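User: Hey, quick favor. My workstation is busy. Could you predict this chain's structure for me?
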Amino acid sequence: GGCGALYGITPDAQSAIGPAPGVPGLFVAAGFSGHGFKLAPEVGRGVAEHLIDGAPRAYDPAFFDPRRFAEGRAHRPLTNRPILG
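Assistant: No problem, here it is.
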């Protein structure tokens, strides 16, 4: 027996939270895979702060900026080995 599943993370294994590049009005909060459930309260608070106040206090918006991939600012992965979940 065996089981296979996708591990839904971004290429640098850090979530993407912020306005979607090239899609006006779309806000992204993705790439959490299994740990998104435990992070949801703070991410939700930060997204609300971002949308209402223009800047979140719950997280660093530059760190999670979805544009980092297109701009060559992706974070260095902690390992060069693929993650199996």
